[in-house]
Amino acid sequence: MRAAFGGPRLLLRRLREVMAEQISAQERLDKIVVLIAANMVAEVCSVYVLRVDGTLELYATQGLNREAVHLTVMRAGEGLVGLVAQTADPLNLSDAQDHPQYSYKPETGEEIFHSFLGVPILRGGNTLGVLVVQNRAHRKYEEDEIEALQTTSMVLAEMIASGELSALAPPGQEPAARRPLRLGGEPLADGVGLGYVVLHEPRILVKQLIADDPNREMARLDQAVEAIRAAIDDMLETEDVARGGEHKDILEAYRMFAHDRGFMRRMKEAIGTGITAEAAVERVQSDNRARMMRQTDPYLRERLHDLDDLAMRILRQLTGSDHPAASADLPDNAIVVARHMGPASLLDYDRTRLRGLVLEEGGATSHVAIVARALGIPTVGQVENATSLADPGDAIIIDGATGEVQLRPTSDVENAYAEKVRFRARRQAQYQAIRNKPAVTRDGVEIRLLLNAGLFVDLPFLDETGASGIGLFRTELQFMVANALPRVAEQLDLYRKVLDAAGDRPVTFRTLDIGGDKVLPYMEVIQEENPALGWRAIRLGLDRPGLLRSQVRAMLRAGAGREVRIMFPMIAAVEEFDEAKAIVERELTHLRRHDHRMPDRVQIGAMVEVPALLFQLDELLPRVDFLSVGSNDLIQFMFAVDRGNNRVANRFDVLSPPILRALRSLAAKGREHGKPVTLCGELASRPLEAMVLAGLGYRSLSLSPAAMGPVKSMLLELDLGRLEAVLTKLIDEPRQGVSIRDKLMEFVEAEGVTL
Ligand code: PEP
Ligand code: MG
Q: Which of 77, 350, 492, 495 is buried most, with the most CB atoms less than 10 Å from its CB?
């Protein structure tokens, strides 16, 4: 049996009138359920709203006992309503009571109703509640009825999201859409940021839901899709895309979707229910997002993302809204929330107003994370659904050290963080005061503190931190944030600017360290079982020397009349160093022959990142001018723990005899051969670890800009002689358990050193 079905267009018109009425939220909801029930010839229509505690509360009903309103509450996943919320899919049953998940709520009196149709109330892919219709008779609802109910639920979604219903609930039980939320993500760039949400891609507000003329809407949709198809074809024809690479793949996927019949059909069906073209695109996009969030297969998820992007483009086309200029009207204290972002987009924002960045995607090695770290913008990545949960202008706090994001924080939380920020500011002021002091320990030993850098944007840190030079310039960063392979002229320009900014302070350029987790977007990705142990860094450089040669040439030319320091990453054997050094010598000969102005002095060094090198130091040291320890890689290889894998990365403590003995003998070997040894891994950027390195004999450390203050202030308070005595005992004594961190902390406390 099929109920007489009144048609959604009339219903939408009536709903629009109800939405505009000056009545209370409860009255409005009550009217809405009556209208829907009448229109769908259903005996029951109920609205369940998702609450902050994850439960679903009955907010309005036509047909069930009215006393149950605000009384009936379903736990997350409980009953059929819970199932709809959990799956974000419609549920259509001719006999609800036969369903294994049916849960009987006596206060509602629903046992006499057999058929059940529930649809999620979705907004931006998030479930905000569930809309249900029921009938006494056993019947299955038709496709067009499901469609109509889903369209109707968009009205409720807007109502819930507007916050109008919050007044109906006691604290702690408000609708989930506007609740304070604590979200977890991956810490990508340190620092605490307090501010207000700015969506990188602002949601396009569909103002008109109901269409006057469906034929016109169909035509508008066709036109918009046609325009998008043409734009994609144009882009595919532009020269740099036509050459291939990732860009091309993405655009081709877009093109495929833009011609996808299923996608078009779903949008047209939605228009058929009486809504505008933009509302139809939003409907399909919302369903799509709900699917995306449940999708665990990364490939399919990526495809759904592409569809989402496409829907966004169509919406923009339909509403005539351009892509926002990132920096336009940026409020003070902006925290940008994005699904994903390229590094160039981040640089478009006014840095003085940017307090933080939240990404739904993005790992520690993503390019935008690298740039964010370089700029000192607190950043948290992998925050699921951030762009749908956050609304523009919402208060938000992010902690880039812990990965915590507080959306619409309560005043307690806000106060706690504000205190944290004040504390950090006080510390910063203290660091400023020691900026120009050399880092000399209390017993008179100077430790040279250098900077780790890699981009233009890092250069101001040289003066801001009072660094003695650049100990590690990661040249691959320029390559990683570019859209195409940087030409020699661009490399030369960067290296010159770096040397100019450093003046007479030394700069150590590291040749390209790509491969492994450092992927260049425009280069073919080579699938390797173990990329960290694969064809990367100097291995790639020696096997395909063209790139290495041109890079070395750019470094030598940039250093005309100055000292040039070049080091090679991932050297595993002395022969590799010899081969790499020969490339530098060849380039020097070339420059001389062509009458270029020569560098005053060229220093060539190797990074110690591969454990095998530790046992070739007597052969290696006479050949090099200096060594630099890449502790990030060295430690990952020594403990056999992937530095990017959170499950194992912190399994062993670095402050343990095996690592410290190795680092100590390395420093001693350097001294024995009269060759300087710097340490430039992250280890040097952590005050306690940096203290230990000084104790092991390191007199030169290269750190991230943010670490400069904390490490220097620690060194100024340190009595190195006393540390050495304690450390020797801790490292050499046979002991149980590997970590000596606790013992070192005892030393720090006894000595009154602040970390
Ligand atoms: C290291 O491995 O410690 C290092 C400094 O190099 P990167 O972190 O760039 O691999
Ligand atoms: Mg390394």
A: 495
Q: How many CB atoms lie within 10 A of CB 494?
A: 22
Show the DSSP H helices in 353-450 as ranges. 367-375, 386-389, 411-433
Cβ-proximal residues to 716 (8 Å cutoff; 6+ apart), any chain: 434, 437, 439, 440, 441, 442
Q: Which of 367, 590, 596, 673 is catalytic?
A: 367
pLDDT of residue 3: 42
Q: Whose CA is nearest to atom 6 of ligand 1?
A: 630
Helix/strand/coil percentages in the chain, nearest 5: 50, 15, 35
Q: Point out the ligand nearest to the CA of residue 636.
A: 1
Q: What are phi and psi of 423, to 5 degrees?
A: -60, -45
Q: What integer pLDDT is reported at residue 297 of this predicted model?
A: 67
Residues with CB under 6 A from ligand 1: 472, 474, 513, 609, 630-633, 680-681
Task: Tell me whether residue 45 is one of the annotated catalytic residues.
Answer: no
Q: 135 - beta bridge partners?
A: 115
Whether 200 sits among the annotated catalytic residues: the reply is no
DSSP state of 675: -
Please give the pLDDT value at position 392. 86
The number of the ligand 1 atom at minimal distance from the alpha carbon of 476 is 9
DSSP code of residue 116: E
C-alpha 229 to ligand 1 mean position (Å): 44
Q: At what angle do helices 246-258 and 214-237 cross, to 10 degrees?
A: 160
CA of 531 to the centre of ligand 1 (A): 15
User: Could you say which residues of the chain have pLDDT below 50?
Assistant: 1-4, 244-247, 325-327
Confidence (pLDDT) at 287: 82
Contact 312, 304 (CB under 8 A): no
CB 46 within 8 A of CB 63: yes
